[in-house]
Amino acid sequence: MRGATHAKWAAGAVVVAMAATACGGGDSGGGGGGDGSGVVRSSWGDPQNPLEPANTNEVQGGKVLDMIFRGLKRYDPKTGAAKDMLAEKIETSDQTNFTITVKDGWTFSNGEKVTAKSFVDAWNYGASLKNNQKNAYFFGQIEGYDKVHPDSGSQSADKLSGLKVTGDRTFTVKLTQKFSTWPDTLGYAAFAPLPKVFFDDHDSYVSKPVGNGPYTVDSYQKGSQMSLRKWDRYPGDDKAQNGGVDLKVYTDNNTAYTDLTAGNLDLVDDVPASQLSNADSDLSGRYINTPAGIIQTLAFPFYDSDWNKSDSDKVRKGLSMAINRKQITESIFEKTRTPATDWTSPVLGEDGGYKSGLCGEFCDYKPDEAKKLVKEGGGIPGGQVKIGYNADTGSHKEWVDAVCNSINNALDNDKACVGSPTGTFADFRNKITDKKMTGPFRAGWQMDYPLIQNFLQPLYYTNASSNDGHWSNKEFDSLVDKANGEADQSKAVKTFQQAQEVVRDNMAAIPLWYQNGSAGYSDKVSNVALNPFSVPVYNEIKVN
Amino acid sequence: MGRYVIRRLLQMIPVFIGATLLIFLMVNVMGDPIAGLCGDKACDPATKAQLSKEFGLDKPVWQQYLTYMGNVFTGDFGTAFNGQKVTELMSTAFPVTIRLTIVAILFEIVVGITLGVVTGLRRGRPIDTGVLLLTLVVISVPTFVTGLLLQLLLGVQWGWINPAVSTEASFSELIVPGLVLASVSLAYVTRLTRTSIAENKRADYVRTAIAKGLPRRRVITRHLLRNSLIPVVTFIGADVGALMGGAIVTERIFNIHGVGFQLYQGILRQNTQTVVGFVTILVLVFLAVNLIVDLLYAVLDPRIRYA
């Protein structure tokens, strides 16, 4: 897409020129006044998958689910803490068996009552292999998952044996192992309840989803627009502060941004990279840039014996100290990334397990020590670091080149590091799954739920689903097991932090930076914020 | 004439099969699309296997192609990864792109040919030099620059139009995008017409017509223009296909949800079904338009006969 890249540059130049002449946009459309009936016009991208809760793993579909569904828990948009939503209580005495009581008085927007069965049916559907739900692994901790979703072959059961409806509003869950913070995972969209129409008339559900959230779908033209309107009989206390939201699909985020500056759009939650440097002035400060639960790291191929020698940790630490994170985040990312000092994310908060500076000096830029450590560790395997990345999306080339530059400067060797691009993202993923990486490679992690567990277990536990480097460490594994069995939240978090120290001492992956979410909005709306998943908190937006 | 058309229609079959096969292979070379569906995480192997099976990706490529072509002939273009039928995508995308193409072609015909005739008749005069210079500028500036500039000037600075086209994409909204899309071809049409007119102006049949005492207007429209338009018609005909498929840049700039956008998104998501389906239709359009252009020759130039 050479043309597109050029277009971005041109657009950048043009908008710079526009900012220089201090020109604002005109006014048209919108409206509603400050009585809470105004409609927010927001940019959107075509969701990659049908809008099924257990099948949506990207932010565009996530936006809609966040508006039309409420689960047992909800993550506080500001702190990320999991708070009871539909759950009246979730009880356990052994961290394995949970009894869940659903609040009374909740209905779907079509009038159907939300019962324990709405949850159990939804979870069974999500876990079942034949339904092709991409978030099925969320149900992996529930007993019977290996029957409904075997790694190979066909399923021998349709329902999770660990789920039992015990009353109209109560059901029990049995996990395969202790997992004390499991209830806090229930805020994820995959755990949403589903109405009967989802199972009985799936096509009509997909063309116009029905949920139990503060908004209802008014009309949905696939691939172009979705109109959501406030649901007046919504029983929750997070009622919509506006009359509705119109999500408009844009072919390009530059076009959406232009439309925002022209006053035809109220909210763009994906400010194009080329506009970041001038967005704040273009929009007279109506620009937000807040941490999201995403961390970028460099993972290592531990299946390659060259990278897994007894002294290799020194090489990895040395490389980490050779990266000038501060400079790269400021010059390339315009401060939309923050240098990482641990392996989690600031959105977890101190109580949730984020510990600034846990990485210590290993994440500081210390070229001299970096050189020393790499030498002590036996030098770089093969004499050259090849950082793997995919070239098709996300402008990874820029930062990989910058990281390599930094390493080359620190090690006084202009051939110490080069980028090693793979054409497409899918191909890149294939190489990783097939264990074909020969050097460190880009690894991004977007949290599923704001728990420290989610930043460690799936990534570093032996043979975990996203342990792409296949790192394995007994001490780490046992600490994670211990933490999951801990009944006390704060003790569990402490133990996870100990486990994270093991990651640090071995430098299982080099933490690079925490990613921010950015959004720009028009002067017609206020109270705009992004939640820890970088999805705008639509129900709190006020239309002036 | 009839036999000629039949022969041409038969020739289309190998072209059609070859073109679709090439596209099918090219999309397949990009690698396994399923791996990209699960974000930065690895898809769990069971779901991955299940999806491959559902989209028929677990079979050898030749078998995938045969199944696909078989389905195409029954009107089933498959399903995109987001669960939408490709035919459904087509029914929303093609009308929009066809409207955009019509606007663009109208610009080419009306503005391009008029300018061409005017400059061709007044060769060497200031107006000729002026228009020539202008076309040179238009040809040398890439479409995305013209597009973004017009969008910014008319849409943001002066507020004459909306910078982004709405989902309805009515004709009036498509005027500026259509002009942008047509701009380069428009310049070519002007130049082609001009050269052709200038050359034929000195032809014997024109001199004869003038000598017969026909009015100037009739000489130009009936004799001069009719013969001079042959190369122009070829160009515009070939351009219909090019405009429909090549509108990716213009469609992205002006937020038009047409064929170009669907193709772009299909390629990004490695959605074989969408890409091959749309390209197949474009190939058909191209072939049909070419045939029509060839038949038009006979209408324009009585000397041409098809046996």
TrEMBL record, chain A:
Residues 85-466 form the Solute-binding protein family domain. Residues 1-19 form the signal peptide. It holds the Pfam family SBP_bac_5. Residues 26-37 have a biased composition (Gly residues). Residues 26-57 are annotated as: Disordered. Transmembrane segments: none annotated. Keywords: Signal. It comes from the Bacteria. Gene3D superfamilies: Dipeptide-binding Protein, Domain 1, Dipeptide-binding Protein, Domain 3, Periplasmic binding protein-like II. This is ABC transporter substrate-binding protein.
TrEMBL record, chain B:
The chain crosses the membrane at residues 12-31, 96-118, 130-154, 174-192, 224-249, 275-300. It holds the Pfam family BPD_transp_1_N. It comes from the Bacteria. It is found in: Cell membrane. The keyword Cell membrane applies. Coiled coil: none annotated. It is a multi-pass membrane protein. Residues 94-297 form the ABC transmembrane type-1 domain. Keywords: Cell membrane, Membrane, Transmembrane, Transmembrane helix, Transport. Belongs to the binding-protein-dependent transport system permease family. PANTHER family: DIPEPTIDE TRANSPORT SYSTEM PERMEASE PROTEIN DPPB-RELATED, DIPEPTIDE-TRANSPORT INTEGRAL MEMBRANE PROTEIN ABC TRANSPORTER DPPB-RELATED. This is ABC transporter permease.
